[in-house]
Design brief:
The protein is an all-alpha fold and 242 residues long. The protein is built from nine helices and no strands.
């Protein structure tokens, strides 16, 4: 674990601090610290984009930069949609992604590989980021016994992951000449899709629903970390490391 001492690193550390404060600060004061993360996160994204001169999605560090602003946006949506305050929930999820951004992931800039220089690059990766946030929120909301909100998040997340899988398949055919390569990351993305398809389409009691949502989150974590980073699972997506 290392402290990044450049300007971007200090802003990332500040983002971690704001997320932590938003978890423990009493209401309604925590809303102000949480809202401050949105302009901070957008500033970080803009700085990184300017620094690398391509959409910051090349590796895990850059992809995770999109999660804090997505989480703040979902907090605002929940408040507008059904007057539900998810500040602490979203702040806790933000802390979990902001901490490795600030102290674990390597932030060294790099060139965008030729295979990623496609108009499908941004919607494909961003679709996955949105789906992962929504599907993780669905599990957390179900744990808090907010089943209707959990199902809505899961439905939107399932739509996003379906779109990203379809875009990835089309892009794979354009780049590698086949719609499906049985790449480890492709297989785990499909397995994750199947778990949420079962959750949305098979009837069951709350224990069944929460189990499926938990398994889905486990598959997401494995796909993003172990499958993405381990040298045991080299494949067509091996360039998308930390």
């Amino acid at each position: 674990m290392t402290l990044k001492t450049d300007t971007l690193g200090l802003l990332l550390t500040l983002q971690v601090a704001f997320a932590a404060i938003s978890i423990f600060l009493p209401k309604p004061a925590n809303k102000w610290t949480w809202r401050a993360i949105l302009p901070l996160a957008l500033t970080i994204l803009t700085m990184r984009w300017w620094q690398v001169d391509h959409p910051p999605m090349r590796n895990l560090f850059e992809a995770f930069l999109w999660l804090p602003p997505l989480l703040t946006g979902m907090t605002f949506y929940s408040q507008w949609r059904d007057r539900t305050d998810t500040t602490r929930l979203d702040a806790a999820l933000c802390f979990l992604v902001a901490f490795p951004l600030a102290f674990v992931f390597d932030a060294a800039p790099g060139r965008l590989p030729p295979v990623l220089q496609s108009p499908l690059f941004v919607p494909h990766v961003l679709g996955y980021m949105i789906s992962y946030v929504l599907l993780t929120r669905a599990f957390a909301l179900e744990c808090l016994k907010q089943s209707d909100a959990a199902r809505e998040n899961a439905a939107w997340g399932f739509a996003c992951i379906s779109l990203s899988l379809a875009l990835g398949s089309y892009w794979g055919n354009e780049a590698w000449g086949a719609y499906w390569q049985w790449d480890p990351k492709e297989q785990w993305s499909l397995a994750t899709w199947c778990v949420y398809a079962a959750y949305l389409h098979l009837p069951g009691r709350r224990k069944w629903r929460i189990t499926l949502l938990g398994v889905g989150v486990l598959f997401i974590v494995l796909t993003v970390t172990w499958i993405n980073l381990s040298k045991l699972f080299s494949g067509m997506h091996s360039y998308a490391g930390v």
